[in-house]
Amino acid sequence: MYVPPKTLTNDDLAKMVDTTDSWISTRTGIKVRHVAEPGTGTSELCLEASRRALADAGVDPKELDFVVVGTLTPDMPFPSTACFVQMGLGAAQAYAMDLGAACSGFIYSLSVADALIRSGRGKKGLVVGGEILSSVVDYTDRSTCILFGDGAGAVVLAECEEGEGVLSCHLHSDGNLWELIHCPGGGTIDPCNPGTSTVRTNFIKMLGNETFKHAVTRMAEVSLEALERNGVGVEDVALFIPHQANQRIVSAVGKRMGVPEKKVFMNLERYGNTSAASIPIALAEAKSQGRYSKGDLVLLVAFGGGLTWGSALLRM
Ligand code: UT7
To answer: Whose CA is nearest to atom 35 of ligand 1?
Structure first.
């Protein structure tokens, strides 16, 4: 994982919009988030996280067959952020692509990477989630600017025996609810132009309360789907790693599923919601903190704009 060094605390935000540390802490669980310097490419964060993942796995970039980057904040419309990562790593044999599934971007990318390996389109690949959300956050809108942070996380995925690694992935979408979280500007409907920023269409818009309700229902459903598919129960899972959107969302999902709090990995307090980066950042920290052991079951679950949601059960 990698996050840019600069931080934005709740007190910093309270100087920018009408909010308080106490409101943000109680309603979200967030204390601080990291933000990149303006003009930074998301690929720079992805590249550093990828180098760390490759070093940890003892894999040379030249061994990689593919690079998939989940992101909603690419360096530019094209080429893909993944191509910049591939170039930076010198992963000469790897094909590279981005995947857009908002905050579910890492699970979607993991699912695609898993399918690529299973279908023989590669033996070893890099799966990355990276975002510079500060580039699309409206720092005059208190209902959204307090939530988001920047960062990246990466994993090396390789062929393994059946029953190890990614056991199953479960993906869902509902485009009917696209308006709940979206960024209207910067695409073909409203291309970037000098007027865009003055009418603020190039920033995240969210109906927080509605999104919250869908997040709780869908994350619980898709977590249970993964457990049922694999014939295991909550008690068999060593660690749950949810997308870090809001402490109250995660607590409500845990309560519905009967997951004890100590089995749920949280680092939201220090990073905020980093969208597609939140799960791989959490995975990296869970690993370094010894929160799971070899052979353990770990359940990843995410929810985001689209709407999109998904889960993956891993045998570590
Ligand atoms: O990453 C994927 C998806 N994203 C999510 O899952 C995010 C889901 N949503 C949320 O996390 C929460 O809905 C928020 C944290 C965004 C908002 O919390 P909430 O408890 O749903 O608050 P609310 O939107 O119902 O607003 C309650 C009140 C409102 O004031 P009134 O109308 O009751 O007078 C807001 O204007 O809180 C006000 N408010 C704030 N007050 C102080 C909204 N933002 C702030 C703020 N500081 N930053």
So the answer is: 143
* Residue whose C-alpha is closest to residue 268's, from 242, 304, 230, 239: 242
For residue range 227-279, list pLDDT tens digits in order.
999 999 999 999 999 999 999 999 999 999 999 999 999 999 999 999 999 99
Ligand 1 site, residue 248, Cβ cutoff 6 A = no
Pairwise CA distance, residues 294 & 202, whole Å: 44
308 Cβ closer than 6 Å to some ligand 1 atom: no
By most ligand atoms within 8 Å of CB, the mutation choice from 209, 214, 222, 303 for ligand 1 is 209
Task: Note if the pTM is more than 0.90.
Answer: yes
φ, ψ of residue 68 to 5 degrees: the values are -120, 130
The domains of the chain, with CATH numbers, are 7-163 (3.40.47.10), 166-315 (3.40.47.10)
Separation of CA 210 and ligand 1 centre (Å): 10
Average pLDDT over residues 143-151: 98
One-letter amino acid at 212 equals: F
